[in-house]
Amino acid sequence: MNFNSTGFVLLAGLTICIYWLLGARNRTRAQNWLLIFTSYTFYATWDHRFLFLLILSTGIDFACGLGLAGVPLRRGKLLTLSVAGVVASLFLCGPWNWPALVQSAIPETLISASGVSVQSGFLHQDADWNVAILAAATVLVAACLLAIGTLVRSRRYFLCVSVVGNLSILGFFKYFDFFIETISESLHAIGFDIGASTLGLIVPVGISFYTFQTLSYSIDIYRRQLAPTGSLLDFAVFVAFFPQLVAGPIERASVLLPQIRKSRIFSWPQMQAGMFLIAFGLFKKIFIADNLAPLANAVYESDRVHSGPEILLATYAFAFQIYCDFSAYSDIARGVSRFLGIELMVNFNSPYVARNPQDFWRRWHISLSTWLRDYLYIPLGGSKAGTGRTSRNLALTMLLGGLWHGAAANFVLWGAYQGGLLGGHRSIRKPLEKWSSRQSVVARSIFAAISWTLFFHLMCYGWLLFRAKSMSQISVLTGSLFSGWASLPAEMNTGAKLAFYIAPLLLFEWAQVRTGNLLAPLHWHWSVRVALYVCCFYLTIIFGAFGESEFIYFQF
C-alpha cells in the first residue's frame, strides 16, 4: 500500500478521525491500540507473512530491553510472549487462503464491488505447513534464549541476543542468496563447482529500517543512555509506527517513545504543517520523481550503447529522482505523523547544496547517516585513532552502509566509493581551509562555486554506480561518458524536460536554504502561498505522472 494510493488515503483518514475522537476523551492507551492495529494492517497489505518477522523482532527486543536494565522478566510474561509468538507464526505463516477468509467475513456484495477475485477453500491446494512450523520453532528458540538470560542475568548476554537475533533475521532474508551466489561464482571461476542453489527469498519490505530502529533501542539501554519501557504496547507502536515503518526515518527510542507514552493534544498549527508536508511530498513524488524516472530509465534500463550526453543527463535525472522520491516519502511520513500529534525527525536538508562529502552526509538520509555514525563509526574509533585508522573506519562504515541498501555488488562499490570520497576530503580539508582563508571574498566565492560543481558531479557518478543494473553496465557507462559529445545538441529536448521538472524544487530549496527553515513557505504572505499552492496543484494535475508507482527505497 503506497502513500500515493487510494487505499492509504482511506486507511490513514479513518485512523486519524477515530484517533482524535479517542483523544478528546484522553484515551492515550486506546489511541495506541488503534495505531498498532493500523500499522499491522498497513504492513500486511504487502504480505501478511512479513508480520511474523516484525512481531518476532518486537518481542525479542522488548524482552532484551528489560533484561539489559536488570528488570526481571517474569515467567508468566515470557510464557505469554512465547504462546502468542507460536500462534502468530502458525496463523501468519501457514498456508491459509486469505482471500477466502476475507470472503467469509465480508459481505459478497462488497467483494463484488471491489473487483477482487477470490478462490474457494480456506487452505491452498498446495498447503505446506513446513514454513509455519519453522517459524514456530524460531519463536521457541528465541524464548529459550531469553529464559536462559533470566538465569544468567548478564547485560552482555541480552545485548548479544538482540544484536545476533536481529542481524540474523536481516542477514538471512536480505543477504543469504547474495552470498551464496557470490561464493558459488567465485569458486566456479577457479574451477570448483559446488552446485549451490539460492532459496529465492523475498526481502520483507522495510526490514532494514525497523531492524536498525530496534537495534538502537537495545544498544542505547546497554550504554545506559535509555531506560526500557515496561509497556509492550508502547514498544510495539515504536517499532511498527505506520508512517515511518517501511522507509524511515529511522527513529531513536529516546525521541519517539516519550511521544507515544504521553497524551497528544490536537493542534491546528500541527495540522497545517502536516498538510503542507504531505502536499509537498506528493508534489515531489508525482510531478518530479515519477516524471524523471523515464528519463533515467531510457539509459539505465536499455542495453544499447549511449553517448556521453545521454548518460550524463540520465544520471542528472536519477540524482533528482531518487532525492525527490525518498524525501517525498519522508515528508509524507512526517506530515501524517503531525496529524497524529507525533513529530518525526528531519531526514533531508537540501543535500545538493553541499560542497563536500562530509556536508552531504549531514544533509542526506540523516537518520541513517547518524545511525551509522553513532553505532558503527564511533565504536570503531571514529576520528580519534590517527589518520590511517580514521580512513579505515570511514571505509568500513560506508561499505556497510552500501551493503545496507541492497545485496548487490554495485551497492558495495557505491559504499566503497562514498568512503573514498569521505577519506579523500578529510585528507585535504585542512590545507584547503588554510588556503581559502588567505584569499579575497571574490576568490573564495569562485572557489566555492568550483567546489560545488566538482562535488555535485562526483556524487552523480556515485548515483551511476548506485543505479546501474550490473558491474558490466557500470563499465560500459563509465567508458562511454567521454564519447559522443558531438550529439549534445540532439539532447537539448531531454535537458529542457529535466530543467522543467526540477525548477520548482530549486525554488523551494532556495527558500529553505536562505531562511534556514524547512517549512519556510508556511511563513510567506498568504497571497504568495495561495499562488504557490495553485501553481503546484495545476502542475501536478496537468503534468503529474499518476499511478501507484512504488517508492524507490521500498526495496531496501
From TrEMBL:
<comment type="similarity">
    <text>Belongs to the membrane-bound acyltransferase family.</text>
</comment>
<dbReference type="InterPro" id="IPR051085">
    <property type="entry name" value="MB_O-acyltransferase"/>
</dbReference>
<protein>
    <submittedName>
        <fullName>Peptidoglycan O-acetyltransferase</fullName>
        <ecNumber>2.3.1.-</ecNumber>
    </submittedName>
</protein>
<feature type="transmembrane region" description="Helical">
    <location>
        <begin position="157"/>
        <end position="176"/>
    </location>
</feature>
<feature type="transmembrane region" description="Helical">
    <location>
        <begin position="78"/>
        <end position="98"/>
    </location>
</feature>
<dbReference type="InterPro" id="IPR024194">
    <property type="entry name" value="Ac/AlaTfrase_AlgI/DltB"/>
</dbReference>
<dbReference type="GO" id="GO:0005886">
    <property type="term" value="C:plasma membrane"/>
</dbReference>
<feature type="transmembrane region" description="Helical">
    <location>
        <begin position="530"/>
        <end position="547"/>
    </location>
</feature>
<dbReference type="InterPro" id="IPR004299">
    <property type="entry name" value="MBOAT_fam"/>
</dbReference>
<feature type="transmembrane region" description="Helical">
    <location>
        <begin position="131"/>
        <end position="152"/>
    </location>
</feature>
<keyword id="KW-1003">Cell membrane</keyword>
<keyword id="KW-0012">Acyltransferase</keyword>
<dbReference type="GO" id="GO:0042121">
    <property type="term" value="P:alginic acid biosynthetic process"/>
</dbReference>
<feature type="transmembrane region" description="Helical">
    <location>
        <begin position="441"/>
        <end position="466"/>
    </location>
</feature>
<keyword id="KW-0812">Transmembrane</keyword>
<keyword id="KW-1133">Transmembrane helix</keyword>
<keyword id="KW-0808">Transferase</keyword>
<feature type="transmembrane region" description="Helical">
    <location>
        <begin position="188"/>
        <end position="212"/>
    </location>
</feature>
<feature type="transmembrane region" description="Helical">
    <location>
        <begin position="6"/>
        <end position="23"/>
    </location>
</feature>
<dbReference type="InterPro" id="IPR028362">
    <property type="entry name" value="AlgI"/>
</dbReference>
<dbReference type="GO" id="GO:0016746">
    <property type="term" value="F:acyltransferase activity"/>
</dbReference>
<dbReference type="Pfam" id="PF03062">
    <property type="entry name" value="MBOAT"/>
</dbReference>
<feature type="transmembrane region" description="Helical">
    <location>
        <begin position="52"/>
        <end position="71"/>
    </location>
</feature>
<feature type="transmembrane region" description="Helical">
    <location>
        <begin position="394"/>
        <end position="417"/>
    </location>
</feature>
<keyword id="KW-0472">Membrane</keyword>
